[in-house]
Amino acid sequence: MTYSIILKYFPNITQKQREQFEQLPALYNFWNNQINVISRKDIDQLYERHVLHSLGIAKIISFLPGEKVLDVGTGGGFPGIPLAILFPETQFYLVDSIGKKIKVVQEVASALGLQNLKAAHLRAEQVDEKFDFVVSRAVTRLKEFYPWVKGKFSKQSNNKLPNGILYLKGGALEQEIAESGLAVQQYHLKDYFEEEFFETKQVVYIKA
To answer: pTM above 0.90?
Structure first.
């Protein structure tokens, strides 16, 4: 699958952004052969299952220039790297507890020339900064995830959605949401993307 799937849903990206998205398969194939950050079966579906999935968050919100976004448990850089390409004036901080994954993130970001992204080998609890939004992709259940980040939000909100969490999740979430005790808004990605992969995928939003 080519990067045309990105243009299908984000037709207004710049030439520089097109070139950055086009570089992703070669970069991830190279690094994945050394440090396995993406499953072998998924690497061939990189654009759909990783890049476009990450950009599902951009169908819910447009990050503003100067906003700060924390990506918790970023793994190989998702959703943070695709979002940093799409929002070059927003600052992204990608953290993961596994150091070799952060090395991949740093190398990919450097190759792409992403000036708005930094990455660190940290657990979420160790991050001592305030952010407008926290993003993540199915790191753990909401009940466990929320305490990691609940004190990390700026007081001032400028976006159409108040500061909070944008969490990519899949499958039936009723029980998980109920056990978390959190007030949640669910956005179904099948309403934005027609590919079958997105049939059960959601962005879960939790106000800070």
So the answer is: yes
